[in-house]
């Protein structure tokens, strides 16, 4: 395949969403892989399979050079394949004249302080917050608002270094842990963002957009529990019916957030708390949802954010004709995360056969296999796996999700040398 051959091609920057790659390939699209840094950032970036791409371009910092390298393939779209690819994808799309979100608000689509301020400026509900490089300033701000606050890096993902702090001593300790350390993308954290704690159920809204028209692809509710010293660790995700009073309110708010951040094209993953006063943004990523959740929706309901993202780029006229259509299917899905109680060498998992006998059992995904080191689960990245449930009856899913949590209590894990 030479650069000059004629075919439909797209650029994916930091292509770490394997299902998205395969979805484009299934549509007959060729993919140019762009790496946003010489040392590729982020977990899951090791030893990529380059055979799936017609080109591999490593960005060394010069936009002109990178744009020239991919221009010969005549790509019709530039897609952010992960959080780290968002800003370069914006810049390349703008440079190449592809449909994109522009660079004016690129920083706000990555920086968690700037994104909330953009939402506030648009007149939407937004959390009180501050960004600081001073532990003293953070403590003073915490004192001024009182109660629990959340302290986290300005730029990261996957629940990396998110601390729930009930006192100034805890918020200062969180600052000391974050400031000057490296995030999961190996980028130094300079300062922190601190936000008021938002009480209420957390939801995830996955979307795909074309020309500022937004498809609400799926809505998930998140269950969080106190475990392993973490006040609110994500325990499970539950796919909700497409319509309903809560879903409709979340959809309207999400569309406002997308507009506020200039997300007119492509996928987005929005996390929201439903407070007593209505929906409030936690954060948003201008890229696909992770944890394979869109893939599970695709299996359960026939289409998901994966399909709508590919359609937005490859078949915009169809997207714009159908993005408001509601395809209500009865089959729902729950994903219950495994929560390891300790670190050590994993000898095995107990009661796996009992999990497989559950009425709604679909699959168990194990990120850590017996014989491998396992880490105490305190973030998304230390989750050793998940149980996937699918069923038409929401009550059955909830019952089985509760049973999964009971069956996967701490003695489910046979760990040598626990610590």
UniProtKB/TrEMBL annotation:
Domain (ATP-grasp): residue spans on this chain: 116-314
Swiss-Prot/TrEMBL keywords: ATP-binding, Ligase, Nucleotide-binding
InterPro entries: ATP-dep_AA_Ligase, ATP-grasp
GO molecular function terms noted in the UniProt entry: ATP binding; ligase activity; metal ion binding
Pfam families in the cross-refs: ATP-grasp_4
Highest taxon above the source species: Bacteria
The keyword Lyase appears for this protein: no
NCBIfam families, per the entry: PRK07206.1
PANTHER family, per the entry: ATP-GRASP ENZYME FSQD, FUMIPYRROLE BIOSYNTHESIS PROTEIN C
Protein name: Biotin carboxylase
Organism: Nocardia transvalensis
Phylogenetic placement of the source organism: Bacteria, Bacillati, Actinomycetota, Actinomycetes, Mycobacteriales
